[in-house]
Amino acid sequence: MLFGTHAATITANTAAQITVTAPAGAAQSVNVTVTTSAGTSNPLPYFYVAAPAVTGLIPTMGPSGGGNTVTIFGSGLALTSAVHFGSAAASNVTVISDSQVTATAPPGTGTVLVTTTTPGGTSTIGLGNAYYTYVALPVISSLSPAQGSVSGGDDVLIRGSNLTYTDAVFFGTAPASFAAVSDTMVVTTSPPGAVGPVTVTVHSPGGTSNGATFQYQP
Q: Global pTM?
C-alpha cells in the first residue's frame, strides 16, 4: 500500500478492509493505492496536514475562574478541534480563519501554555507569546488615609492582595491615577468628589475587588 510513493505499514488485513500506519510525509495531498496480485487499485486522496503553531493571544491574562473569551493567533488553525490551557480543555472553540481561533478559557492558576490540536498534531510555539496567565481576584484590606478633600489630589495607599496586575482604580465611578507598588500595595491619587462616602475598588485581569469606603470632606 502506497501513500504517494511511500509504503505504509500494514497492521491488519481482511478481504474488505486494510488497517495501516501512514508513513511520514510533507504537508500536501497524495494518492493512496493498494496493490495485490490482481493489480493496483484506483487512487484516493490523503491529506498530510502541517502541525499548527500558536504565535499570540488576546488577552494574555484572565481571571482564575476562567469564562472569558480568548482569541488565539497562529498558523495552520483552520482544522482546530481542541484548545488547551495547560492540560485543561477550553470550551466554545470557534475557528475564524486559518490564523485565528477563539475559545472560552477554563479555570486555572499560574502561567500556562496554550495549544491547539488539528489532524496535523498539537501546536508548537511559534514566534510570539503562547502563554496565558491566570490572575486571582484583587482584594482591598485597607485605605490610608480613608478620607480626603472634595477637591481631590490626596495620595491614598491601598493595601490588600493580588494587586500586581492592577489596571484601574475607581473612587465610586470616577477613575483615579495609580501605581502598583507590589502585590500588596497600590498608591493612588483621589479624584475630585462630592462630600460624603464613596466606594473605592481596584480592577485587574482577575476582576473587580471588594469595595473600601473613602470619605470626601469639605
A: 0.80
Half-sphere exposure of 90 (CA within 13 A, CB side): 29
Euclidean distance between CA atoms 53 and 210, whole angstroms = 39
Query: How far is it, in rounded angstroms, from Cα 29 to Cα 176?
Result: 58
Cell numbers found for residue 32 = 493512496
C-alpha torsion angle, residues 192, 186, 108, 130 (rounded to 10): 90
Q: Find out whether 49 and 119 touch, Cβ atoms under 8 Å.
A: yes
Question: What single-letter amino acid sits at 33?
Answer: T
Comparing C-alpha atoms, which of 113, 135, 110 is closest to residue 122? 113
Q: How far apart are CA 158 and CA 34, in angstroms?
A: 73
Chain length of the chain = 218
pLDDT band at residue 18 using 50, 70 and 90 as cut-offs: confident
Other CB atoms within a 10 A radius of the CB of residue 94 amount to 13
CA distances 208 to 145, 169, 190, 192, 211, Å, are 21, 9, 18, 22, 9
Dump pLDDT digits (tens) for 70-107.
999 999 999 999 999 999 999 999 999 999 999 999 99
